[in-house]
Amino acid sequence: MEPDRLDTAIPADLSAAERLVCAAFPRGSWVDLRDAPVAARGVLSGLSPAGQRPGSLVPEDGSAIGPHRQVRAEVIRALLLGAFAAEPGYAPAIRLRGAKITGRLDLMGATVSYPLVCEYCHFDTVIRMVEAATKTVRMVSCYLPAFNGTRMRLEGILNLSQSKLAGVLRIEQARITGHVSLIGTRVLAPAAAASTPAAGDVQAVSGVGMSVEGSLECTGLQVRGAVTLESVSVTGTASFNQASISCPGGRALTVSHAEIGKLDAAAVTLDGQLRMHNCRIAANLTLNSAVLRNPGGVAMSAGGLTVQGGVFLTESFRAEGEVQLPGARLGANLTLAGATLSNPGGFALNLDRAGIGNVDADRMTCTGLVSMVGTRLAASLSMRAAELTGDHGGAALIADSASMEAELMLIGLRASGEVSMRTITVGRRVLLLGASLRAPGGTALRLSGSQVASDMFCDGMTVQGRLRLAGARFGGQLSLRRVTLSNPGGSAFDAPGLQASELVLQPAGAIEGAVELSHARLELLRDDPQHWPADLRLDGMTYSSLEPRLPARDRLRWLARDPGGYQAQPYEQLAAHYTAAGQASQARAVQYARERLERRSMTWLVRAWGGVQDATVGYGYQPWRALVWLAVLLATGTVVFSLHHPHPYQASHPPFIPFIYTLDLMLPVVSLGEKSAFNPTGAEQWLSYLLIGSGWLLVTTVATAAARALIRN
Fold first, then answer.
1. Residue 48 pLDDT
2. What is the pLDDT of residues 120-175, one digit of tens each?
3. What does pTM read for this prediction?
């Protein structure tokens, strides 16, 4: 029996198919218009039969659908707007399978109180629900020329799963209380259908300003053209798992200024840019196994992104083009473990001024610059076994002024190009164990002005290029055990002003290049005498202890490796070290060597006088020499004057004693009475002059040396 009509909008000439639809509407019953064989193998749930790909049953060719399966859109519209009364005990609805809907289904501005459910249907005209207020709209495995739901209000579900849209899907500023499902949906914008390069400029899905109080399910979505979800609000999860969006050269997926509960885009494939400017995500952002392709451009632009949970770009994540997250605020971790980033000649990863909980980039492969200038990490930065390749010898990583509260872990890092981390702050340790850094002829690792609260371990590291730590400060040990440092013709280890409680410089082999430690401040220096560098600069360096403990003669060879020549401070420091260690004789040996080296820079007259002091008393550090000279001269004079007595001046004279006479000649100022009583002649007279002069010379040099010793003490 035909239900009671409430509206004359129902045409009088209803076809058999339309009468079935009208009869089923009051009870919300299904009407299946598919041919019997097709219906038998179709799946009533809307999912594809086993063995067929999603969407394979979409009726794309409307001409193949006979007249017996056609339903006019005006009939459906009239039913949805209440043309027939509801049957008591039932919920009216349109539930239709296998039909061809002819004419435009236009519900613009309408208030629809009943669900619209279509499966395997073909619509030959754009569906328009602009500003409509409606219930559930479910069009599964359908063919739609386009769908316009701009500013629509929907309570329930908007479900276009497995359907194909030949035109644009518009849900701009829509308000949906429930969720949106585009699982397996295919959207092909008209200009994109020709696969032209201009596809990047074509809008395929537009949801600008859309609000969803629920989830947005786009798993397996396939789009040619741009998907724009700018300024959307999704309280639940927005899922783009295994979606594929092709928009070469354009913005493939835009979710800028959006507020989303959770964004899950694992295994998504984007040809074009992923744009997420100032997007806010309450939970996690997942891009595991995603492929973002925009070679030579920006693959992911997420400046100002805020994520309260973790950000996962791992499990073979691949980006061709720049990944930008400058100024991002990531409350938990950023995981790039195993990711591959490629943007030769430009930035591969930009995290400048970002605030992040923890960065895990273990095993990441990156071609292009990684920039983390001013980045703040609440925990650690880890790049274990990562591989960074700069462009044409340019920088591979720049993290100047970055800070991390915990550790900087670069264990096994392989970098081709400069790794620059000037003025960074590390709350705990820095680990570069087994790292390989290559920047031949340039700076391989730059940590100038950095502050590390604890230790820095570089054991087993290989550096081709300069290792620069100028002004760096370490609260604990700086360990360079078994390192290989090579920068021929330049500085291999450039660390002026370095501060550390302990420096271990024990390379695996000879250091190729200069070692610069001028003005370094160390508590303990451990080095390896077998691998002392040929070019070693130590002027101004201070230390409390040296290991291994070597005699002064060895450490003097160590100081002599400074190509700048003699500098007073390293010798004074070494002497102070031996003095503090209770090795006074070693300290004197160092001071003596210092005096001899210092003499070389004086005028000839001063050098001559210094030579006399050296020969006589060793600048006061070897006073036994004066005693030797005195003994030799006393013995010589005693023997000579014993054989040849000088004549007395007067008849009355004291007895002549050769030893006392010789001693009296050699002592200036003091008189023992012998010198004034006897007068030598001939050769003995010349000997007396020699003894008098030698006495003056010895006494003067001894006094000068004593004065110097008092000043030093």
1. 37
2. 999 999 999 999 999 999 999 999 999 999 999 999 999 999 999 999 999 999 99
3. 0.81
> What pLDDT is stored for residue 655 in this prediction?
77
Reference 422, options 446, 456, 455; nearest CA is 446
Q: Is it the case that residue 301 has pLDDT exceeding 80?
A: yes
CB contact at 8 A, 118 and 138: yes
Q: List Cβ neighbours of 484 (8 Å cut-off, separation of 6 or more).
A: 461, 462, 463, 507, 508, 509
3-state secondary structure of 462: strand
Separation between Cα atoms, residue 688 and residue 419, nearest integer Å? 76
Contact present, 512 and 485 (Cβ < 8 Å): yes
Average pLDDT, the chain: 86
pLDDT-derived band at 199, boundaries 50, 70, 90: very low
Of 654, 653, 661, the residue nearest 680 (C-alpha): 661
E-strand stretches of 276-375? 280-281, 285-286, 291-301, 306-307, 311-312, 318-324, 329-335, 340-350, 355-360, 365-371
Which tokens hold the place of 679? 């007068």
CA–CA gap between residue 524 and residue 193 (Å, rounded): 72
One DSSP character per residue, 78-101 reads HHHTTSBPPPTT----EEEES-EE
Q: Find the radius of gyration of the CA atoms of the chain.
A: 46
Task: Please tell me the distance from the alpha carbon of residue 537 to that of residue 540, in angstroms, as a whole number.
Answer: 9
Residue range 22-36: average pLDDT? 89
Kindly report whether the peptide bond that precedes residue 533 is cis, defined as omega within 30 degrees of 0. no
* Rounded Cα gap, residues 74 and 115, in angstroms: 16
What is the rounded distance in angstroms from the CA atom of residue 272 to the CA atom of residue 254?
10
Q: Give the distance, in angstroms, between the CA of residue 190 and the centroid of all CA atoms in the same chain.
A: 43
User: Residue 47 pLDDT > 50, yes or no?
Assistant: no
| Two structure tokens written together for 526 | 């451990």
CB atoms < 10 A from the CB of 473, how many? 16
Task: Name the DSSP letter for residue 106.
Answer: B
